[in-house]
Amino acid sequence: MFWEKRLEHWVQNIRSQSPLPLRLELWNGQRFDFGQGLPQVTITVPRLSALSYLLRPSLSSLGIAYVEGKIDVKGKAAEMIAIGNALAVHTLAAKGRLSRVVRSFKHDKAHDAEAIRYHYDVSNDFYAQWLDRNMVYSCAYFEHGDEDLDTAQLKKIDHILTKIQVRPGDRLLDIGCGWGALVLRAAEKFGARCVGVTLSENQYALAKERVARAGLSDRVDIRLQDYRDVEGSFERITSVGMFEHVGLKLLPAYFAKINTLLTEDGIAMNHGITSTDPDNGEAPFGGGEFIEKYVFPLGELPHIGLVLRSMQEGGLEALDVENLRRHYARTCSIWAENFETRADAIRTLTDDKHFRIWQVYLAGSAYAFAQDWISLYQVICVKAGRSPQSPWSRRYIYPAIER
To answer: How many Cα neighbours within 13 Å face the side chain of 9?
Structure first.
């Protein structure tokens, strides 16, 4: 039969390029091993119609097939992702499938709010299973590389607040405040007066509860609000893991809004995921397509070059740029490990489809950061042409360094 010959040719082609710790099991009892020794990953194809996902194995098609139950995959999530990428490389690279697609989506307040609710309002209990105890859903900071996740996330928050030199009494705005960890820390340790805004109702409710429990309601104001509707004046502004939702075309306006909210001597920081494609394209082999479809609707990642240009167009000057790509690879790896460790509990909080989506997404993100398909930058900025009373060197960021 035609499909049998095609499948055998495909298997032999991959075996000849690089043996893989993979086993393929078909509905008719046939079994193919792609390498010697025990397989780390087993793909089961339950019917002939599902074979097409495998024979053109982009990360998008494989992800869709797994999430929708067209195929079954057994193995650790990190190994599943590595095998999936290897299949894509060996099958699709010669046919020019490495190109990165640049997408553009419509962004307005209604669509953005809907997209945020889709991603963040799964349930607070769901996120609590695999995040750190403070539920910080962004790149951690591993100062020495051996910190546990709780420590690394707290160090990330302190790293940010130290970088922007938060002082007692400073008004601080956190755009996309999540479950409130940064504003709580800024108020408790640094003495700031904080406003945190989010579009997620679940985040808003828990952040408000945490603020009240900490006795900080007089210093921390949590709002269910679009950043475009914020008014006032702030000495310090942070945006952590939020601008990925803004949209490429709206980046200058986003930074211009930060500019209008920042005092003349104020300091802001944008901490966000970027594409490593200079043309702002998605991750190769359809990885970005899968994430847009199932995980982050309307998400768009700019290259750091576009970020800096958009900042300047918005009237802001970048003072410091730090690449934390390796830190996010490690963060996502820990999240993925936590997810698998707590799999039984997580399955009680969501259906099988969403369990598979997040399993693939977390492990896939770790792989994408490790491969430099995507990156993470912290950029400190001020109003263009201003000269805030900042130290001349970066030593102030690392107070533990011996002088």
So the answer is: 9
Residue 118's identity, in one-letter code, is: Y
Rounded to whole angstroms, the Cα distance separating 58 from 74 reads 18
Q: Which domains does the chain have, with CATH numbers?
A: 2-95 (3.30.1050), 109-397 (3.40.50.150)
pLDDT in tens, 244-294: 989 999 999 999 999 999 999 999 999 999 999 998 777 776 677 787 777
User: Is the CB of residue 320 less than 8 Å from the CB of residue 394?
Assistant: yes
Backbone angles phi, psi at 211, to 5 degrees: -65, -45
- Express each pLDDT in 142-161 by its tens digit: 999 999 999 999 999 999 99
The overall longest dimension of the chain from CA atoms, in Å, is 75
3-state helix, strand, coil in the chain (%, to 5): 50, 20, 35
Angle between helices 352-370 and 287-294 (to 10 degrees): 140
194 within 8 A of 187, measured Cβ to Cβ? yes
Question: How wide is the angle at C-alpha 112 spanned by C-alphas 106 and 118, nearest 5°?
Answer: 120
CA distance 273 to 139: 9
| Residues 26, 71: Cα–Cα separation, whole Å | 10
Distance CA 33, CA 5 (A): 16
Look at the block and give the residue holding tokens 């997408």: 103
Put simply, whether the predicted model's pTM sits higher than 0.85 gets the answer yes
Strands 31-33 and 41-45: unpaired
CB 364 within 8 A of CB 339: no
Q: How far is CA 397 from the centre of its chain?
A: 25
CA distance 131 to 334: 9
Closest to 164 measured CA to CA, from 76, 263, 238, 75: 238
